[in-house]
Every structure is written in structure tokens, then in C-alpha cells.
Inverse folding.
């Protein structure tokens, strides 16, 4: 895939250290061999060292150049426990609880990133989305000006002129069920950043609704209108318009008819759905009916990148998500 190869090339240009806290998971260890051979990133595997090495032997994977970290034996374990306790004591975390949490490799990886020992994290092959993202929410926190973690898909639609020659960003399709206007605005800003950093796009963001410029009246439309206003306020440099129906966002003739003079209508390449139902349904319809390639979900909004794998992921999926995470880290 041309886009994925482009992302890998970007990752090679400035190698980042990506932490893999599911270090004993078989697909993860196998992916390390490809990540190393392609020079995509420097890798740290977290877990019991002897177990990681056993999996590597099983699949004939060389761990030369790969850093192995067993949290309980790591030189910084006590410091990380103390730091986590200070961060979370107001939430009722005791020193004993802090020590237990730092034995969780995902929490330890998040603390390593906070302390400058890593640039990003990839997990989820054997963890739920909640378990993967929670360490980021508690330790890494949000990027400046962003109020919510969200996701997007990069959609590559074959033989299409919509978006940028068939390439579009769809957000949020995997994380936030019913975002507020403020959250919807943050999703729009994050998705635009993803479009620029991963795809090299100049984002043109459409805030989608079942109404275009007041053609319908409803509180759901009001939320999109308010979200658009907030985006203009927090990111005045961003090309954004709303509320727009999907055809007004994508089809130039319709866009100029319904929103004349708009810099976005009819040529949007970033589509922001009003809720998770619309987003999830929308990307799957385009994927199945138009034969689009859907890359993602890509997590966005953290101060440092964390990405969630599907538990049904392949080795190649792990490699691709590591490359995406590395490029996100380059563009902080």
C-alpha cells in the first residue's frame, strides 16, 4: 500500500523509541523482527525477560538491538512507584496500590514515556482498548488544547476523486459514543493534525450533520454548529466548515450550491461525524461498498502517542501501527 510505505519511510527518517508492553505476546515478538529489519523504530519490549527470550527463540527472532525491560527488576522501578503515587494519591491510590500498578507493563511503559525513556507505545493484542488507553489517561495526559482522546481512520477509496484523490480521514469512529460540542471540536483538531502528519494533507475539515447551514432545526444540529464555532476559536488557522451534509462536504457542485464560497464544502478531506454510531457505520459502509482500505483506528489526543491494536491483529498490523506511532511521535 502506497500510503503505508510512505509512513514507514517517514518513520525511518528519524527513528523513535516505541515501547511494546505486551513483550511476551507472540505476534508482537515476531513483528519486532520486521521492525528491526526495515529500520522503522527502535523497540523496547516489556515483560519477564526469560519469557520474552523464550518466545523469540520459538520464532527464531533475533533480539539484537532490542531493549528488554522487566519492570520489577528495572533500575527506575522505585522512582516510578513514587511518581505514580504522587500523581494519584488524591484519587485514593496508596503506595501499595502504586507499586502494584507499576508491575503492569502498560502502566510502566506510560511512565517510561513520561520520564523520557520512550516516544510512544503500542499495545492491545491481548488487552482491551480501555486497559490500553487508561495508562495514557492517568500518566501521559492530553496534548495541549485537546480535551478528549479520540480516533480516526485513514480511508483510501480506489478510483475516487473525493478527498485527496480518494484519501480521506474519518473521525471519530471507535472511541467516543456521544461527544459534546467541546469534545467534537477537539476531535476535529486532532483529526486535522493526523491528516497533516501522517498523510501530508492540507486538511479541509467538514463537520457533518443531517443539515447544511440551517436547512434543518434540531438540538443535534445545534451541537455540530457549536462544535464548529469552537474549532474556529481554538484553531483559527484551520480550514473548517459546518454544519454540512455528506454530499455538501464531498461533491463540489452540491457544496457550492448549499454553502457558496466555502473553502471546505465540496472538497473536504477530513470528515468529522457527529457521534460514534454515524462514524462507525460510515467507515464500514465505505470500506465494504466502495472497497476502501481502512487504516486504523489511529488514536489521537495524547501528549505522547499511544495506539491500540485489535486483539485479532496480524504481525503486519503490529508493524504498521508501530510505524504510525513513530511518525506521530516525530510530529509532536
Amino acid at each position: 500500500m502506497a500510503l503505508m510505505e510512505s509512513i514507514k519511510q517517514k518513520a525511518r527518517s528519524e527513528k523513535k523509541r516505541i515501547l511494546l508492553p505486551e513483550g511476551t505476546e507472540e505476534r508482537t515478538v515476531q513483528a519486532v523482527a520486521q521492525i528491526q529489519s526495515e529500520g522503522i523504530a527502535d523497540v523496547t519490549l516489556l515483560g519477564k525477560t526469560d519469557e520474552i527470550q523464550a518466545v523469540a527463540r520459538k520464532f527464531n527472532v533475533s533480539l539484537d538491538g532490542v531493549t528488554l525491560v522487566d519492570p520489577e527488576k528495572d533500575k527506575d522501578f522505585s522512582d516510578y512507584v513514587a511518581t505514580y503515587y504522587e500523581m494519584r494519591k488524591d484519587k485514593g491510590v496508596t503506595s501499595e496500590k502504586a507499586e502494584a500498578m507499576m508491575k503492569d507493563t502498560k502502566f510502566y511503559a506510560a511512565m517510561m514515556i513520561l520520564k523520557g525513556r520512550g516516544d510512544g507505545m503500542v499495545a492491545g493484542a491481548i488487552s482491551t482498548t480501555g486497559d490500553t488507553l487508561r495508562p495514557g489517561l492517568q500518566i501521559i495526559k492530553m496534548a495541549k488544547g485537546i480535551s478528549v482522546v479520540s480516533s480516526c481512520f485513514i480511508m483510501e477509496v480506489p478510483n475516487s476523486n473525493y478527498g485527496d484523490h480518494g484519501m480521506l480521514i474519518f473521525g471519530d469512529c471507535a472511541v467516543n459514543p456521544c461527544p459534546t460540542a467541546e469534545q467534537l471540536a477537539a476531535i476535529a483538531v486532532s483529526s486535522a493534525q493526523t491528516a497533516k502528519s501522517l498523510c501530508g494533507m492540507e486538511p479541509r475539515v467538514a463537520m457533518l450533520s443531517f443539515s447544511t447551514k440551517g436547512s434543518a432545526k434540531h438540538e443535534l444540529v445545534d451541537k455540530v454548529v457549536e462544535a464548529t464555532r469552537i474549532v474556529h476559536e481554538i484553531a483559527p488557522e484551520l480550514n473548517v466548515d459546518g454544519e454540512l451534509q455528506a454530499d455538501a462536504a464531498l461533491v463540489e457542485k452540491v457544496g457550492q450550491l448549499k454553502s457558496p464560497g466555502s473553502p471546505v464544502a465540496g472538497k473536504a478531506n477530513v470528515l468529522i461525524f457527529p457521534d460514534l454510531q454515524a462514524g462507525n457505520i460510515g467507515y464500514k459502509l465505505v470500506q465494504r461498498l466502495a472497497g476502501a482500505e481502512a487504516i486504523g483506528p489511529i488514536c489521537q489526543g495524547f501528549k505522547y502517542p499511544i495506539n491500540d491494536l485489535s486483539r485479532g491483529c496480524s504481525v503486519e498490523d503490529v508493524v504498521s501501527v508501530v510505524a504510525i506511532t513513530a511518525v506521530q511521535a516525530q510530529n509532536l
User: Anything to note?
Assistant: The chain has 14 helices and eleven strands. The chain has a mean pLDDT of 95.
